[in-house]
Amino acid sequence: MASKIKVKVKLKGDVAEVKSLMMHPMETGSRKDPDTGATIPMHHITQLTFTNNGQQVMVVNCSTAVSRDPFFSFSFKGAKAGDKFAVSWVDNTGGTDSTEIELA
Amino acid sequence: MFIKAGLGLAAMLAVPRALLAAAWPENAFASTTANQAMSALFGTDQVTETSAISLGAPEIAENGAVVPVSVETTLENVESVSIVVEKNPRPLAISFEIPAGTMPDVACRIKMGETSNVHAVVKTDKGLFSASKEVKVTIGGCGG
User: In the CATH scheme, what architecture does the domain B32-139 have?
Assistant: First the structure.
């Protein structure tokens, strides 16, 4: 399945500005289905990992209080064109997604 | 160049599981008060207010389901940046682990159930520091 993570990295010298948007329902577990009244089970990303050439540059631990289709941005030093930048997440149901881009 | 859907096997292997960070801090996220969450996450809830942290958040959030929050600090040797929403049912919203080389300048979007103080808590090698801001919420974002 194609990844549902979008990631853009802008290089400014050796600083990489990362912006990433991913598709995930981020259900809190306290919301009810408006039609049936049944509680929608909790379903949220727990941990996101960003790596550059295999080295961790950011780990994000998320609760259900992160908005649906989460967006994150941050910057790190020591990046250069040609680096392999990867994003991956796991959720509380064991779901995962990942993507990789080459910095340019 | 925006997304490369095809992920080679070599790329998968390039991120060995051993590199993955510490486990997701379940107890901290399950805590129902801000102080409990801090104690569970950091081992202490003693924080120092500082103007060296800039917490970006709207004065009024029309939609509590999507509240843009950003945290930036001039503090050195930052280890993590966490966002705590005092009046959310589970106050700890998110925690960024910042390795050396990554700038303590992060942004994300969070949910807020009601008007509340929002705290940015920055952990450095010198302890815990925070900055706070009240965000007024017109429509809550926690559902139910």
Answer: Sandwich (2.60)
Q: Does A4 touch chain B (CB under 8 A)?
A: no
Q: Which residues of B44-58 are buried (b: 16+ CB within 10 A; e: fewer)?
A: ebebeeeeebebebe
- Comparing alpha-carbon positions, the chain A residue that sits nearest to B81 is A60
* Chain B residues close to A100, C-beta within 8 Å: 4, 7, 11
Query: Is A61 among the domain residues?
Result: yes
Q: Return the residue of B nearest to A63 by Cα.
A: B93
CB B68 within 8 A of CB B109: yes
pTM, whole model, 2 decimals?
0.87
**Is residue A32 included in any domain, yes or no?**
no
Does A78 reside within a domain? yes
Q: What is the pLDDT of residues A11-70, one digit of tens each?
A: 999 999 999 999 999 999 988 988 999 999 999 999 999 999 999 999 999 999 999 999
**Residues of chain A contacting residue B65, judged by C-beta atoms under 8 Å apart:** 67-68
Low-confidence ranges of chain B (pLDDT < 70): 1-22, 140-144
